[in-house]
Amino acid sequence: MPLWPFVAGTRYIGRANVAKRLRALEGTPAPTAYANGSVRVELDEAVLTVTPPFGLAHEGEYDVVRAGPLLEALAVSPCVAVVLVRMGGYAVGVFEGEQLGASKVGTRFVKGRHRKGGSSSNRFRRRRGEQERELVDAAAEEAARVLGPWRGKVERVALGGDRTAVGRVLDADPELAWLRPLALERFFDVPEPRLRVLETLPYQLHAARVAEEPR
Fold first, then answer.
1. Which residues pair with 158 in a beta bridge?
2. Phi and psi dihedrals of 73, rounded to 5?
């Protein structure tokens, strides 16, 4: 019996559940291949491809399930900086493992869409643009202040919220340029950035990408 329901496609699953399932399969006859940062296991009922969040350097091919290298990769807990931004709020922080070491959360009102035309619509767009700039500037300033002291210790960076808003914040201050090269491939689609959202992010940060294909 699988430890999670079979669902064809790709999803993110907590590392504890992934480790538990693969540990239970250790030694089971099944072609297992480590390559390109992932492990592929060809079980009777499905083919699993598991990609740990922070990399998997081991490579090799086996006739049975070899879970050890994957379990070691899943156990990695690097120092991760986080920048979450949506038009209306932002949250920045640093996680040492799953412990939140520093953080700052803020909000700025940004008007919603305007449906009327004419001069009223133009005034609305100008005012909305001003509010967006205020939010971006505030978020960039706080990100530089909070994350700057951790430069050199941070190993990876997690970005989330709205892609355009995050990009504008990172571009707003040269002091944030060091974050982009460390950014994880996964972009975290989180709701309105709040402290509670930031505090619960470690589960997603450490979740593995699991692709399942039926046999």
1. 82
2. -65, -35
Q: Model confidence over 174-191: pLDDT tens digits? A: 999 999 999 999 999 998
Q: Are 203 and 10 in contact (CB under 8 A)?
A: no
**Tokens at 7, concatenated:** 């669902």
pLDDT score, position 123: 60
Residue with token string 């978020």: 139
User: Which helix (H) or strand (E) is 16 found in, with range?
Assistant: helix 15-25
Alpha helices of 62-200 — where are they, by DSSP H? 68-74, 118-147, 163-172, 195-199
DSSP 203: H
**Residues with Cβ within 8 Å of residue 133, at least 6 apart in sequence:** none
Q: What's the pLDDT score for residue 45?
A: 86
Sign of CA dihedral 137, 172, 178, 186: positive
How far is 36 from 211, CA to CA, in rounded Å? 15
Question: What SS3 state is found at 61?
Answer: strand
Write down the pTM of the prediction.
0.86
Give me the count of residues in the chain: 215
Which segments in the chain show pLDDT lower than 70? 1-6, 108-129
Decide: helix, strand or coil at residue 26.
coil
How does pLDDT run across 90-109, given as a tens digit for each residue? 999 999 999 999 999 998 65
Classify residue 85 as exposed, middle or buried by CB count within 10 Å of its CB (0-12, 13-18, 19+): buried
